[in-house]
Amino acid sequence: MGLYRTHTCGELRREQVGETVRIAGWIHSVRDHGGVIFIDLRDHYGITQVVIDPECAFYQALERWRVETVVRFDGTVVARTESTINPKLATGEIEVRASDMEILGEAEVIPFQIAKDDGAPEAMRLKYRFLDLRREELHKNIMLRSRVIAEMRRYMTAQGFNEFQTPILTASSPEGARDYLVPSRLHPGKFYALPQAPQQFKQLLMVAGFDRYFQIAPCFRDEDARADRSPGEFYQLDVEMSFVEQDDIFAVIEGLLADVFGKFSEKEFTRPPFPRIPYREAMRRFGSDKPDLRNPLEMIDVSELFRNCEFKAFAGTVAAGGVVRAIRAPQVAGKPRKFFDDMIKFAQENGAKGMAYIIWTGGEEKSPIAKFLSREILDGLKSAGQVEEGDALFFLADQEKLVQKIGGAVIPELGRQLGLIDPNVYKFCWIVDFPMFEEDEETGATVFSHNPFSMPQGGMEALLNKNPLDVLAYQYDIVCNGIELSSGAIRNHRPEIMYKAFEIAGYDRSVVDEKFGGMINAFRLGAPPHGGIAPGVDRMVMLLADEPNIREVIAFPFNQQAQDLMMNAPAEVTPKQLRELHLEVKLPKKQEKAAPESGPGEK
Predict the structure, then answer these.
(1) Alpha helices (H) along 372-482
(2) How far apart are CA 539 and CA 198, in angstroms?
(3) Which among 240, 241, 223 has a CA at the least distance from the CA of 232?
(4) Cβ atoms of residues 414 and 344 within 8 Å
(5) What residue ranges in 386-506 does DSSP mark as E strands?
(6) CA 272 vs CA 199, 251, 262, 541: distances in Å
(7) CA 47 to CA 89: how far, in whole Å?
(8) DSSP state, 556?
């Protein structure tokens, strides 16, 4: 018999009845039934019920036991009576009648309950994350993550990809989010950076001839938290391929997502090939480049119908170069006035001056603006919006970019309010044809729109002969249920095209050589056409686990202020450590005043 166990707490079945066994785990719960004690003993694999009779020599010691104490039991497996079988447990047909026990790790009073959700605040849960991870749902999420990553590795290897590790200490990059910097002890005044992504290294692997690369890659970005983004660090399935076009990358990723979502979820999901929506179309229809296709609502351009109408607010907007967009809300005629008022208020909170609406009910149009509209316009709106009896149209009127922004908030909110979003399906799509350049709203200068290293569609000819704002890039996003899982691109591997693209964006050759010299030099020595993508592991698992917050699928996440409350990070370091790194700390004035009262790591 092993020192700690012969079986796990999820292993025993009716076939083991009569056997003497040894099991070990955490005391999940304790119940006293007329002197007979029933203990649910839990480990990683499951729960087994242990029965302790008053005759047991260790019975009196039970008074000192607390939940979450780690205990070893010896005993005999017995069958439960028909009336006491627990169908919710894999071990529910048996129990272990204890004959001996040993305390392996005594627990003090725990700060929150493990066996049930007692509403502990998130800060408490993060401070005692090792306890929180004992909870069934969170434990399942982390195990799901492990299995998903294992399946990704299996799939990618089967597709001929090789896994390589890229450096964690690297050079700071001028593009993207803020870097996490690491001071060098051996090179005073110089810093490494933690990689925001292995972008340049994976491209250099293609130049080196490895053809198909992947990595479950840690990435580090000093950015603010969101529900679907963890501050500090995250993991992505980093992928790069040589001698490929956009379609080749789509085929690999669609196959991967179909494999993973097919194996780890019972929900319906979009089967390959996934729909492709050009960026500008997505912005026009949904006001977002990450649309939730479960929601049937979208914007319809009705600007021309209002161009010469008597409703001056809309006619004036169109005359000034703006747009009027309508959003059809199905079967809302019976909604109280508060519903419409709340939607208008929501639109205003997101930047709208207001939001008009028309309801088609009882064979007529009900709206404060209907009296300003001719029968021709009203019928045109009904036709354009495919309006049925009981439907309404909400209207947004302003400059196009602002209308897109407001519509991008109103559409999902309206979908939620009307219960139009099916929670039992995953809908994937590609957003393609991103513009290479855009106009800076403050300066009017032409700047890169998204990824400066994407290959422009049309290559050098497009850069030389097209209006820069009309040049599209071979760049794409994969989106699921309104969440961007990844961006990717066919890379610009030709130095002359890269120099020209940066020139259009206002950078001369010296800047490119200084900031990206390693890449340019590599491309000069024979670079294959290549491209890639990097789906976010955390976001994918969040979707599969049906969790609204990404912290629920990460074992040891930061809080929203990028702090690790369990390990007390970030924390102050000693003066000796600072001297070794040739650094001095200069705190903001407010923190300087507070410093004498603050403990380590509080600032």
Answers:
(1) 375-384, 400-417, 459-465
(2) 18
(3) 223
(4) no
(5) 392-398, 425-426, 428-432, 437-439, 446-448, 475-480, 483-490
(6) 27, 8, 12, 20
(7) 7
(8) S
> Residues 40, 29: contact at Cβ < 8 Å?
yes
Query: Which spans in 452-574 are helix H?
Result: 459-465, 495-504, 509-523, 537-544
86-92: long-range contacts (C-beta < 8 A, 24 or more apart)? 86/49, 89/46, 89/47, 89/49, 90/10, 90/13, 90/46, 91/9, 91/10, 91/11, 91/12, 91/13, 91/46, 91/47, 91/48, 91/49
CA 286/CA 298 separation, integer angstroms:
5
Per the document, the length of the chain is 603
pLDDT at 454: 96
Give the β-pairing of 212-221 and 162-163: parallel
Please state, in angstroms and rounded to a whole number, the distance separating the CA atoms of residues 272 and 276: 11
Contacts of residue 429, defined as CB under 8 A and 6 or more positions apart, other chains included, come to 270, 274, 275, 276, 277, 291, 293, 478, 479
Cβ–Cβ under 8 Å, residues 5 and 46 = no
| Model pLDDT for residues 543-574, shown as the tens digit of each residue | 999 999 999 999 999 999 999 999 999 999 99
* DSSP tag of 597: G
Q: Give 415-440 pLDDT, tens digit per residue.
A: 999 999 999 999 999 999 999 999 99
Task: Give the pLDDT confidence of 49-63 residue by residue, as tens digits.
Answer: 999 999 999 998 877
From the list 107, 88, 95, the residue with the least C-alpha distance to 40 is 95
Pairing of strands 268-269, 425-426: parallel
Euclidean distance between CA atoms 437 and 433, whole angstroms: 12
Rounded Cα distance between 254 and 46, Å, is 35
Of 135, 140, 85, 87, nearest to 113 (Cα)? 135
Rounded CA separation 67/102 (Å): 15
Whether the predicted pLDDT of 226 surpasses 80? no
* Position 63, amino acid: E
Query: From the DSSP assignment, how many helices (H) and strands (E) are in the chain?
Result: 17, 24
Flag whether pLDDT at 369 surpasses 90: yes
Cis peptide upstream of residue 273 (ω within 30 degrees of 0): yes
What string of H, E and C letters represents the secondary structure of 194-206? ECCCCHHHHHHHH
What H or E segment, with its residue span, contains residue 279?
helix 279-286
List of residues 6+ apart from 493 with CB closer than 8 A: 203, 455, 523, 527, 528, 529, 530
Q: What is the pLDDT of residue 457?
A: 98
CA distances from 567 to 183, 222, 557, 586, 602 (A): 21, 19, 11, 24, 12
Contact call for residues 204 and 190 (beta carbons, < 8 A): no
**pTM score, whole prediction:** 0.93
The β-bridge relationship of strands 276-278 and 428-432 is parallel
170 burial (CB, 10 Å; 0-12 / 13-18 / 19+) is middle
Query: Above 80 in pLDDT, residue 229?
Result: no
Q: What is the CA radius of gyration of the chain?
A: 30
Where b means 16+ CB within 10 Å and e means fewer, 310-333 reads ebebbbebbeeebbbbbbbbeebe
